Amino acid sequence: MTKPISRKATAIPTRQPQEDIYTRITTKILSDLEQGNLSWRKPWHSEHMTSQVMRPLRWNDIPYTGINTLILWNEASDKGFTSPYWMTFKQATDMKTNVRKGEKGTQIVYADKFTKEEEDANGERKSSQIPFLKTYTVFNASQIDGLSNAFYKTPEPVIANQQERNQELEQFFVQTKADIYTGTKACYTQSTDRIQMPPFESFETAIRYYAVLAHELTHWTKHPLRLNRDLGRKHYGDEGYAKEELVAELGACFLAADLGFEPMPEAHHAAYIQSWLQVLKDDKRFIFQAASHAQKATEYIQKLVCP
């Protein structure tokens, strides 16, 4: 693919009340869930994106991460965009191209911090970092005229033998050095730090096997010696359990997009949807946290394979 012209171009984010940002994005995802749809899986269900899903990309080929991945996947699926590239109006202008008249952009977010100084009870000045979100608007390459052909090229479909082991994926999972053994069910047990997987032959396709393994491998990253992720699970089926399952679900989707396969739906998603609905209704910010945890898990796994 021809490398796009390298020009320095930056977005000018605008601050919005944080609750507005969290509420707007969470409400959209809740609406999908209430209809039985998983927002983050939409790209694989869209005819125009099937078998060619990848991370959304900035104008300079750097992938978007975390919650922005979910937002842009969702928008591309809803609007029928096939290009993975997104950019701001200014970036498009700096590249001597034009956003078509009447096109509406997509708001994404940028996390930042500011320093606040206060006097403590002893009269000493202390500073603290206060996190906040900014929003800015991007347009898909499909909404812009005049870009080089590289921006409009649709990713090539990934063709794989559905019944045979994929040696590249096999090597990827082996290189994580996770303790994976064959048993009767798919699960990660933290007390033994082992991943149990049913026999490869018991899955309808190889892709289903790797999709489930990616899910369990995301759970594996929560161990105290790795990312030390504790979302408050006390027992099976409680709120902490639902939160961790959502993180593993997103992590599997992120890994699948990066590795080029479809994160095949599992039978128990219908049951999970109800618990995820409740979690997101109770905490409008959790989808941001879940996407962040999933992003960290994916990056952790990738660094084990390609340090």
TrEMBL record:
Ranges that cross the membrane: none
Pfam family, one: MPTase-PolyVal
InterPro entries in alphabetical order: Antirestriction_ArdC, ArdC_N, MPTase-PolyVal
Domain Polyvalent protein metallopeptidase: 168-293
Domain N-terminal: 20-139
Example of a GO MF term: single-stranded DNA binding
Protein name: DUF1738 domain-containing protein
Species assigned in the record: Spirosoma profusum
